Amino acid sequence: MESNFRWLSYAIFISLTFSSFVLNNGVLAESVKPDEAKQLRDEVRGMFYHAFDGYMNNAFPLDELKPLSCQGEDTLGGYALTLIDSLDTLALLGDKERFTSSVEWIGKNLQFNINKTVSVFETTIRVLGGLLSAHLIASDYATGMRIPSYENELLVLAEDLTRRMLPAFDTPTGIPFGSVNLMYGVDKHESKITSTAGGGTLSLEFGVLSRLTNDPVFEQVAKNAVRGLWARRSNLDLVGAHINVFTGEWTQKDAGIGTSIDSFYEYLLKAYILFGDEEYLYIFQEAYRSAMQYLHKDPWYVEVNMDSAAIVWPVFNSLQAFWPGLQVLAGDVDPAIRTHTAFFSVWKRYGFTPEGFNLATLSVQYGQKSYPLRPELIESTYWLYKATRDPRYLDAGRDFVASLQYGAKCPCGYCHITDVELHKQEDHMESFFLAETVKYLWLLFDLAVDSDNLVDNGPYKYIFSTEGHLLPLTPQISLAREHCSYFGGYCRSNSTKPEQEVLEEESNNNHDRSNIYPYHESFPVTGLIKGLCPGLTHAQKYGFFYALPEKTEREDVNQAKPETTSNSIVLISDQTVVKRPQQVDKEEEKGFTSQSEPIMTISGGSSNDQTGQELTLLESETDDQRLYSS
Ligand code: DMJ
């Protein structure tokens, strides 16, 4: 019976996936309309409760749910991780009752004086972030979710937890150890190697805690960690993936925007926006410019050696998919749109994004077949819809829902997919499914319905932490009120002109759209631009705007290749690809062949990387990409 149901579900899923290709092709079905958006929003709400109730009934107070067998497991510190990670989603959905009872339970029962060794990064983004965002909601009338009996219990817990992590920062570089024991500090056998994301993704949570407790130590150690990483950047302004926190030597020199590095970039920009600390902005500007120069192979991103910029890893990894969302926040919407289209084409091919998709073979990367319910592509979809209101992003949202409902839904929650080609389910549900994946999906459809939620129509502007937690720009936390503070829109490059001049130009019907996106212009202004952004799509808003420093000659040479409008530029793995030993075996084992042959045409493009090696660029379109974009 159960297996019949599974087969039926699978058949429906396949047919849905197929029909959604057609949907997006505009042949048979229509784009998502307001009524359907409302239905989808409600369906996503149902998804949240299927998983949340499944967790509460079967796993709580253990950390995470095993949704196939309907059991629980401790995966981080053994402190009701999924409940903490879900708190602000409950608030966002307006569920005062469950939000209140959950906050009260945590306030009464949680403690961190436990003999557990935990990841500094995961504990910060999931637990500390969850506690802080819930505290800021529960303690504030303006959110509409204030809990009358609440007496800062979560803030007290957050401070206690973070003090227990401070010993990890006692290193010569300021970059923290990857793990710390909450009772005894850092074990003498603890590994000295940590990831860039691990050391560089603490500034939001630690900074908020400092501003709420008036103790600067948290903000300082997190900033020192970022400085410690950035001081060791290469001459190309790239950072590697892993570093020794004692010697400061990079032990893994692959630079990229995905695995092991991703949220380092994210927190540079977001820390600036939330705290108004311009040091973060300057670092972000340099880091971003370099990423776009060396890692961006429009519309994809690759991993390169941080010193030479030689390509080492021509793979789309699913963690990269947050990048278009970050670009929206930075005001660089045009490349974000192209990259999202490319990444989404991978989702459409498999119904999920695999952890790795090889851009040379156009097939799932060996050993990286799973989809562990990650949010990144959905997060970027939300940001792009917010910025552009293009209905194609709602259509993408409908596809995400269909995939999750027919491929990942299991008896007590949502299951990881172990193999995106076979759609095999695994008995695990990461807490970020409720903190992020469902949250961004719900927000996407709510934007299309009435935007009447805390984030889009609340008392403050909010920054999302990398775990999707809501951090408000309140006066206590943020100095950014002095700046433009619109997130999710973009200014025209002429917004630097005096307002009067802009208005005059507009009244002369000068609506040249080539000026909207700043990145591709040679733009002579560095740093933050204060003032009005008259070109904003969404009226009455003031805009945060990010502009790059003037291009250097070196950049001009490298960027001289013609603007591409193709769906994908794929780097073919020839002599320029330096493979890791295990990768060589595995890829040769696979014959380096594509399972679904792409249609390829040689565009004749070639460009030089920093080592002077020739990179062969082939313009290609997979069938799916053509279906999606035509
Ligand atoms: C989450 O914990 C966070 O989004 C983190 O930045 C990356 N990994 C997961 C989601 O994929």
From TrEMBL:
Its cofactor is Ca(2+). It comes from the Eukaryota. It is found in: Endoplasmic reticulum; Membrane. Residues 582-591 have a biased composition (Basic and acidic residues). It is a single-pass type II membrane protein. GO terms for cellular component: endoplasmic reticulum; membrane. The keyword Calcium applies. Keywords: Calcium, Endoplasmic reticulum, Glycoprotein, Glycosidase, Hydrolase, Metal-binding. The lineage of its organism: Eukaryota, Viridiplantae, Streptophyta, Embryophyta, Tracheophyta. PANTHER family: ER DEGRADATION-ENHANCING ALPHA-MANNOSIDASE-LIKE PROTEIN 2. Belongs to the glycosyl hydrolase 47 family. This is alpha-1,2-Mannosidase. Transmembrane segments: none annotated. GO terms for molecular function: alpha-mannosidase activity. It is an enzyme of class 3 (hydrolase). The active site is at E122, D262, E355, E376. It comes from Cardamine amara subsp. amara.
